[in-house]
Amino acid sequence: MQIHLPLSGTGTVPQRLYRDLRLALAEGRLAPGERLPPSRALAAELGIARQAVVDTYERLVAEGFFEARRGAGTFVRRLPPVVTGEQVEPGVGPGRHWRPLPVWGDREAPRRYNFAGGVTDRRLLPMTDWRRAVMRALREEARDRTLQGECQGYLGLREGISHYLGYSRGLPCAADEVMVTQGAMQGMDLLSRVRIVPGAVVAVEEPGYPPARWVFESYGARVVGVPVDEQGLCVDQVPEAASMIYVTPSHQFPLGMPMTLERRLQLLDFVRGRDVLIVEDDYDGEFRFDGRSLEALKSLDRHQQVVYLGSFSKVLHADLRLGYMIMPKGLQAALRQAKSLTDGRAPNLMQKALANLIEEGAFARHLRRMQRLYQRRRQRLLEALAQRPDLWNCLPQVAGIHLTLEFRQSVDKLEARLLGAGINAEDLGGFHASSEGTKGLLIGFGMIDDEDIEVGVRALARALSA
Hints:
Keywords: Aminotransferase, DNA-binding, Pyridoxal phosphate, Transcription, Transcription regulation, Transferase. The chain is of the alpha/beta class.
């Protein structure tokens, strides 16, 4: 066999050899029935270890492309399917009930100035502590003889979450009230499964978090936007027919104001005696910079009508896909059943690793570090933004890892301006269900490096002034 295998690109030698052989198969340079060189001979020809060739051959045999014949060698068994550019029929599509919805959260290429909101930098993860926690979890998994993990989540993590919420959010709860989810979005999905019937009215903040609206709508809910003011949700405008109310009381998304105690009590009074569930999404309540953290709305709930959603996406990173919810007693059985019908359980290894991180105190140390870092970035960003009061008004915010700018005058072709200036930031218009609403930007400081803040704000000012 005479074939060129350059072994170029990234990855280990076996990975590069595998890619080259797959490409040779796809391009027809290897034919079915053709005999491959012996592993020793190919290794010598390419100047690599024989084991790399053996491992690659075994992988392609396992995938069915090669076959090993005892005493005869290794042969091409079949070729991978050829992908052509021809148009094909789309096939079966979704049911008539399904309404196409936007996709939220796809990975976006970073621009020069990354003011993306709601995201954190994986470089800030406590890698040494996390590696130690994962290695300990691997050892624990190797000794574990149970058949499968718990649907509600690993008990050690649920106990850690219970303890954490008690001291950080003033929210006493038992481990059996906690359910571990794959992010807060799964919590919304599970709640929708067990609470929403087609046509049910769900009240959400306007402006608000679009994916929450879309999840509720995907289950047939009639979603009604309720205005917010400087005190939070305008409770007197919540529809009487609402069966679920979604709120972000610690740090309204995206405008940033916390819900006052008066409004919280008014909201709890509104639902009392009705079959109404309040969904409290505390998406970044750990980061409060002016005054003591407000206690969770759930901590005021005396009638089991509030479910509390939390996530480790902001403190650690969204790629971990670990969140949790504190369930009202009346929903616990139904939510466990719904979880078992979706993914069964969150990955046990990551749960145990996070439980170890909390137990060893590394999580609390990391949180304190992040609070100091974000406090510093927030102050630098506020000072930089204050230099251009002619362009924007920075709305008052006391928590979270983003700020909200209200434009002094309308700005056309905003996305094109941001792209031209190399800036990641979110247009506030995307958080409104209607075209009317606050004109401005959501500016995050979870990803941008400290030294880029001032120069990034100046680039933004130039882009808006052009």
